[in-house]
Amino acid sequence: MSAGGFLLAPVDRARRHVVRLAAITAIGRRAIQDRSLRLPLLALAHAGTALVLATVIPMWTLLVAPIVLGVPHVIADVRYLLLERPRGLRTSQIAAILVPLGVATAFAMLAPIQTFGMLLVPGFLACGGAIALASARPVLRVAALVLLAAIALPLALHAHLTLLVLAHAHNAIAIGLWLALSQGRARPALRFAAAAAFLAGGVAIGAGALDAIPFLTGGWATPVTGFDAESVGETFALPGLGAHRSLMLFAYGQAVHYAVWLRLVPGERSASEVPVSFRRGVAGLRSALGAPAFAIAIVMVMAVPAFGLAVPVETRRIYLELAGAHAWLELAIAAHLGLAFLSRRR
Alpha carbon of 266 to those of 53, 103, 115, 164, 188: distances in Å? Predict the structure, then answer.
């Protein structure tokens, strides 16, 4: 047995026990054999888990989740949006998306960009490239480009607010991408119901229905020095919501975002109708990435949490700075899928 297989063997044994427990009930047996039922049920379970984490221990959730799950979810982004690309996505579109985002990431690695407006330019270029080179009707592409150009200037004039809204909104964009990437599967209504449950959790937080929970549980306590609710809240505070409520909303949205990319989208794109073992899933990832990129990915998946144990706040900050481009990647692919959908409805 390989070293990787040896490490994954206990995880797969635990997975088999969970599957056996699920098979005790009739609905569990059906879900094991039918992903169109299993994935919406998983989505509901993840929605409930995310809501608990975001309201009971929001600060720990905000600190730990990016360090542990951030790199794996970016790898999933690259795999399912670029390598195993959505239908109709052209190579020229991928290049038009990756060039500006790659340049922006390189600048972020070499030196911090001082103006928020400069952070918007690569994102607008990536979205514009995806739209301009899409295989949609010319009138749709022109209309989308005109709309992008019309909103670019006012958004750039309020760049800080734009990036803040994007940070929150891209968590919800992942839900739309899950629905789009699952087109053609059975039971679409169940997926829309699960997506509605995801959004309902965010609405409940935004409306203030759950404000009391973290105060009762001590969820606003500082987990490590330098990561307190007041200073972090200033970064994520949306107008009209306040710092605490915005932090809960982002913690919830972030947890949902990771669940979409690490559980739901892989389940939709799997060649197997039944759940696959972790060992088989890792083998599929290696095949998708290729051996060199897979090796780099594994090192990153292990290195970021290792650094996080030593310097959690700094590790989280560096990860978020370097991974910021993935939000624009998701937005650009969403624009492509939107145009494809509109073209099919002519």
Answer: 23, 28, 36, 28, 17
Contact 163, 119 (CB under 8 A): yes
User: For residues 38 and 17, what is the distance between their CA atoms, to the nearest angstrom?
Assistant: 17
* Structural contact between residues 12 and 279, judged by C-beta atoms closer than 8 angstroms: yes
Spatial contact of 298 and 212, defined as CB atoms under 8 Å apart: no
**CA atoms of 108 and 116, how far apart (whole Å):** 12
Length of the chain: 346
**Is the model's pTM score more than 0.85?**
yes
Place of tokens 């009930």: 25
Q: What separation in angstroms does the CA of 274 have from each of 17, 134, 270, 278? A: 15, 34, 9, 13
Own/partner pairs for 188-193, CB < 8 Å, 24+ apart?
190/36, 190/37, 190/40, 191/39, 191/40, 191/43, 193/40
What is the tens place of the pLDDT at every residue in 137-194? 999 999 999 999 999 989 988 888 998 999 999 999 999 999 999 987 778 999 999 9
